[in-house]
Amino acid sequence: MKNPVLTIAGSDPSGGAGIQADLKALSANSVFGMSVLTSITAQNTCGVSSVFHLPSAIIEEQLDAIFSDIPVRTIKTGMLATPEIITTVSRKLATQNIEHLVVDPVMVAKGGYVLLEDDAISTLKAKLFPQASLLTPNIHEAEVLSGMTIKTLAEVRAAAKIIHQLGCQFLLIKGGHLHEQPGTDLLYDGRFFRMYKGEYIRTQNTHGTGCTLASAIAAHLAKGKPMADAIEAAKAYTTEAIRHSFTLGKGHGPTDHFYFLQA
User: Fold this and answer.
1) Is the CB of residue 34 less than 8 Å from the CB of residue 253?
2) Sheet containing 32-44: which strands, arranged edge to edge?
3) CA 198/CA 25 separation, integer angstroms
4) I need a labelling partner for 84 at 20 to 30 A (CA). Which of 32, 53, 91, 120 fits?
């Protein structure tokens, strides 16, 4: 566990999503997880009730503390809710020799709470997407970014061509909510598509799956795997974490990040 990976995201006190899920997924995939907090949420398995965004100054100071001491080559971002936060993060990342930046464009919590301000979407597109090695929107996020309704794989491909023009190197549209072949993800590099067919596991305990997948991909990239292989390994891990998910609380329970430790 010698590969440091930094996650920049919001917190989930219930532990299923956000920076807590990121750190679990990073550890489970054998890299050393570090974290910079952007927002504090009051949430549980039923949903988000309140959010407090940290001032940009303390976010910048957290990043400076890491970058001045520890070489970081792989970073994953999650909840970056405001234009100010996005601008700060983008500016600081531009000063570093980042090899891999995995951007999970978190927009809405599973319970429907909006986690990305409307005026922040354009900032995300303009400032952070061009820095991204990989962008990982789900179907809803891909619809927002492309301006399309997405129900079929053909529409996923069409949306991917639109979104990729925003500047990311690779784009992975996650198909957990896809009407046609749910569980199938599509990778696009601007020229070629690669489909990742996955098992669709029917469970309501899927809190934090997007955070988990993106962090697992970052972990495998940090260990030197090519993008396509990193995604394949991370998808296999996330599928098993969902398979071993469990009921906790009254809403959407978490996945089991350490399912392989069960006796």
Assistant:
1) no
2) 47-53, 32-44, 4-11, 74-77, 100-103, 134-135, 170-173, 185-188, 193-196
3) 19
4) 32
| Alpha helix (H) residue ranges in 68-183 | 83-93, 118-123, 139-146, 153-164
**182-212 per-position pLDDT tens digit:** 889 999 999 999 999 988 899 999 999 999 9
Nearest to residue 221, comparing CAs of 149, 136, 154, 145? 136
Instruction: Provide the 8-state DSSP code for 92.
Output: H
Q: Which residues pair with 47 in a beta bridge?
A: 44
CB 12 within 8 A of CB 19: yes
Q: Domain boundaries in the chain?
A: 4-261
Residue 184, sorted as left (phi over 0), alpha (psi -120 to 50) or beta, turns out to be beta
Q: Decide which of 3.40.1190.20, 3.90.550.10, 3.40.50.300, 3.40.50.1360 is the CATH code for 4-261.
A: 3.40.1190.20
Gap between the Cα atoms of 12 and 19, Å rounded: 7
CA-nearest of 105, 88, 230, 76 to 163 is: 105
Task: Give the pLDDT confidence of 3-58 residue by residue, as tens digits.
Answer: 999 999 999 999 999 999 999 999 999 999 999 999 999 999 999 999 999 999 99
The 8-class DSSP code of residue 125 comes to I
Mapped onto helix, strand or coil, the DSSP state of residue 244 is coil
| 130 CB-near residues (< 8 Å, 6+ apart) | 166, 167, 168
